[in-house]
Write a structure and sequence with these properties.
Elements (H helix, E strand, L loop, with lengths): L7 H4 L3 H26 L37 E3 L5 E3 L39 H4 L7 E3 L3 H8 L2 E7 L4 H32 L8 H11 L3 E6 L4 H6 L7 E6 L2 E6 L5 H15 L8 H11 L3 H13 L1
Parallel strand pairs: 3-5, 4-5
Antiparallel strand pairs: 1-2, 4-6, 6-7
Length: about 300
């Protein structure tokens, strides 16, 4: 049999080949030595880790993520441990609604899964007795005036309560302060209207002026004692106290279940007005200034509120 002979440059050695082979063998020997040394050597290091054996212990992580086109309902946060354990912590994340320009549409962060809702406004430091010194602005309704108020006032905000309810007592100053702010706002609106039209205050009685204030008010803030008028509350299917319900054109529109602070209530009323009134009929924005002057507690809140007022 005939076999093809190998090329001479393969069978013959050269100086360049010997140098490259020697360099490769030296490199392999060096790498082998270093890896063997690293394998058998010890490296002392100090690390800090948290072994959370108590489920009540928590680590607080602060982060701020703005997503312009993502509804809050779809924003979730998942945490993975080093062994791959997944835990959803969305219920502990506080969310703010914003519009397409990044303007806050909600005064305080709200988490639909959390239970720590503010039951009253700590910014209202007066007692109910102090607030009633110049009259009651949150009008008390009874079995006869309640149906009348629903028919006569397009926007009726009612607090259903009982006299033996501690949460109702705590919330009472906040609710009265809201009524006082709405009344002050309506009075300024009436005064501005009369000044614009050149109308003389002395040509109108106190009753006529009060009626004009009620007509001009963006919303009528009232309260009804379910202990005194149980039939009314039974008909309205009131099952918890206090229940704050908005009636629009005589029909129940929605129950408020957010933070029971004046600014949160005002912002919620503004959202409801946008849903039920035409743009030319908006009145709630007039309350913002009086409410912020009364209850703003920090510079950060004032900046947010001013931005929202400019947007409105």
């Amino acid at each position: 049999m005939m076999y093809q002979q190998a090329a001479p440059d393969i069978t013959q050695t050269s100086l360049r080949g010997r140098i490259l082979s020697g360099f490769a063998m030296a490199t392999m020997a060096t790498l082998f030595t270093l890896e063997t040394k690293a394998y058998f050597s010890k490296d002392i290091s100090t690390t800090l880790s948290l072994a959370n054996s108590n489920s009540e212990q928590r680590i607080r992580l602060n982060f701020n993520i703005t997503m312009m086109d993502l509804p809050c309902d779809y924003a979730t946060v998942d945490v993975y441990s080093t062994v791959g354990f997944q835990k959803n912590i969305t219920k502990d994340v506080r969310k703010f609604n914003i519009d397409e320009d990044g303007v806050l549409q909600q005064y305080e962060a709200r988490n639909w899964h959390q239970d720590d809702v503010e039951l009253w406004d700590p910014a209202v430091i007066e007692t109910v007795e102090d607030l009633h010194g110049d009259g009651e602005d949150a009008i008390s309704l009874d079995g006869d005036t309640f149906p009348y108020a629903k028919e006569e006032y397009p926007f009726l905000f009612v607090k259903f309560y009982t006299s033996n309810c501690p949460n109702c007592d705590d919330f009472a100053p906040t609710w009265e302060a809201l009524g006082e702010i709405v009344t002050d706002t309506a009075m300024h609106m009436v005064d501005d209207f009369m000044e614009e039209k050149g109308m003389d205050y002395y040509h109108y009685s106190d009753e006529e002026y009060e009626q004009a204030v009620n007509v001009m008010a963006p919303v009528l803030v009232t309260r009804l004692d379910c202990g005194a008028y149980p039939d009314v509350c039974k008909e309205e299917q009131i099952r918890a106290y206090p229940t704050t319900r908005l009636f629009v054109d005589g029909k129940a529109a929605a129950d408020y279940d957010g933070h029971r602070t004046v600014m949160e209530l005002v912002h919620w009323l503004s959202h409801m007005e946008a849903a039920y009134r035409q743009p030319g009929q908006f009145k709630m924005h007039n309350i913002f200034k009086h409410a912020s002057e009364r209850t703003i507690r920090s510079e950060e809140e004032r900046i947010w509120n001013d931005a929202l007022m400019r947007y409105r």
